[in-house]
Design brief:
This protein has 262 residues and is α/β, with parallel strands linked by helices. The protein has one domain (4-154, 175-204, 242-255): Rossmann fold. It has helices at residues 4-17, 28-45, 59-67, 80-88, 128-140, 155-167, 184-191, 205-222, 231-236; strands at residues 49-53, 72-77, 98-102, 113-119, 142-153, 195-202, 248-255. Strands 3-2-1-4-5-7-6 form a 7-stranded mixed sheet. Helix 2 (28-45) packs parallel to helix 3 (59-67). The longest helix has 18 residues, at 28-45.
Length: 262
């Protein structure tokens, strides 16, 4: 596991050498799933002010902002090169309701928002203590009754799909050295005093079973190298969500009102 500075340097270096759609993840269809679930909920909730914490190259931020021109979006990332790529995007100048700034969630948010979301951001903090601090900052940065859309990786789903891989004669996929996955029971216990959990979905299960198990076994049988742009990935991204065989979950949290007298 890399330390905090090592992880920041990893993303800064990666972004400085890659401004493509794969700069934040090689799996562009997983990113498409994440965009789809965020767009549906942002569109339904209609928050006036939205913050994307850990926005990376800003592609998701820009798409959401373009689809909701009456909402104001802020994109933050601690990697300067990621923010440079977001600002340099061909879409950025034409989307007037979004701004990008370099900012570390460990320093908190500069103002309050109606909705905050993260997509595989907090897993780049190398300890549970740091993740708890970041979650407290998100809580403090939300208006009363505001919404936190959490799209992050969880160890339980990761272990489940690795068990299926083993059953299919495939090697396990290790957690990457710059990632520290959440443990669901611990997260839920921590969040309970701060937020009400309104919705929870494993958004990666059917996608991972198709792409990381079935397609991976086909490639192994054929002696081929898996390709993130293969049709198995593209078609799997449109499947309904079912099961607990992937690491990426969506959790929708609503900030609790302060208790009377506190």
């Amino acid at each position: 596991m890399l330390d905090f500075d090592g992880i920041r340097n990893y993303w800064d270096t990666r972004a400085s050498g890659d401004s493509s759609a794969q700069s934040t993840t090689q799996d562009v269809y997983l990113r498409e799933i994440e965009y789809r679930v965020l767009a549906e909920r942002v569109g339904r909730l209609r928050p006036a002010r939205v913050a994307d914490v850990g926005c990376g190259d800003g592609r998701t931020t820009l798409r959401l902002a373009a689809g909701c021109p009456d909402l104001a979006f802020e994109g933050y990332d601690y990697a300067a090169s990621m923010i440079d790529n977001a600002r340099a995007s061909g879409t950025a100048p034409s989307v007037a309701n979004v701004r990008f700034a370099q900012r570390d969630i460990m320093d908190g948010l500069p103002e309050r928002f109606d909705l905050v979301y993260t997509t595989r951001c907090l897993i780049n903090l190398p300890s549970w203590d740091m993740q708890m601090a970041a979650l407290r900052h998100i809580h403090a940065g939300l208006a009363d009754g505001g919404t936190y859309l959490m799209v992050e990786n969880f160890q339980e789903g990761h272990d489940n799909f690795n068990a299926v891989r083993r059953a299919y004669g495939l090697p396990e996929i290790a957690v990457r050295p710059h990632n520290f996955f959440f443990q669901r029971p611990r997260l839920i216990d921590f969040m309970a005093p701060l937020f009400a959990l309104r919705e929870e979905l494993n958004i990666s299960s059917t996608y991972y079973l198709t792409s990381r198990v079935i397609y991976a076994r086909i490639c192994a049988d054929q002696g081929a190298t898996p390709d993130y742009f293969d049709d198995h990935h593209r078609l799997a991204a449109g499947l309904p969500f079912a099961g607990e065989f992937g690491p990426v979950r969506l959790l929708v949290f609503e900030k609790k009102a302060p208790e009377a007298g506190r």
